[in-house]
Amino acid sequence: MVQISLLGLTSALLPTALGLVIGPALQEREIEITSAEDKLQPRQGYYFQNWSEGGSNIRCNNGGGGSFTANWNSKGGFVCGKGWQGGGARTFRYSGTYNATGPGYLAVYGWTQNPLIEYYILDSHADLAPNEPWTSKGNFTIDEGTFEVYQSTRVNKPSIEGTRTFQQYWSVRTEKRVGGTITTKKHFDEWAKRNMRLGNHNYVVLAVEGYTKTGGPGSSGSASLTIN
């Protein structure tokens, strides 16, 4: 995955099906991705992330305000979504629709540096099929739901800082939903209790992701989501 960090600090390859590049285009338009491509389009205080690792039949559209849509049927990995530069303790209040088959997620997704951490907060998913082995770190319940916590390791993989070995943190909702509130600090606090420390926040987005599990099928689906 090709990536340029939102803060403009580093150009690198991103290891999972999530990534972005700061792009100059500000106008609303639908993008059909047929090769590796990233787009980041600011609008009304939000950033639009649109990336593919070479899959076909993927359409992502940057709507007004905090809205975006996606339609896909592809064996290639992709991600599109909206969020904020800098990340940190953000509250996502969102609504919309998400329907998918095959490996993929509807999640809040972000990166930190020092330490270098890639993290997911999954609200819904199709096939839960990570490409790295997960280590269970227990579960927790907050007013927003009950979540299973996992940690995984990427060894000598591309990241926003180049090729590195780094940790992935995961919160996975036990009862899937589409729409509601995701307060990132509540997850950060729970992770800290498990010695899962974060660093300086780079960016965070609400995103849909599809990808191909090694040796397995691709994904298909549609989503129409709005950050309120």
From TrEMBL:
Pfam (any one): Glyco_hydro_11
EC number: 3.2.1.8
Domain named GH11: residues: 34-222
Keyword field: Carbohydrate metabolism, Glycosidase, Hydrolase, Polysaccharide degradation, Signal, Xylan degradation
Cleavable signal peptide: 1-19
Known catalytic reactions: Endohydrolysis of (1->4)-beta-D-xylosidic linkages in xylans
Active site: 118, 209
Segments crossing the lipid bilayer: none
One GO process term, biological-process aspect: xylan catabolic process
InterPro entries per UniProt: ConA-like_dom_sf, GH11/12, GH11_AS_1, GH11_dom, Glyco_hydro_11
Pathway(s) this gene product operates in, as recorded in its UniProt entry: Glycan degradation; xylan degradation
Molecular function as annotated in GO: endo-1,4-beta-xylanase activity
Broadest EC class assigned to this enzyme: hydrolase
Protein family according to the UniProt entry: Belongs to the glycosyl hydrolase 11 (cellulase G) family.
Protein name from the UniProt record: Endo-1,4-beta-xylanase
Organism of origin: Echria macrotheca
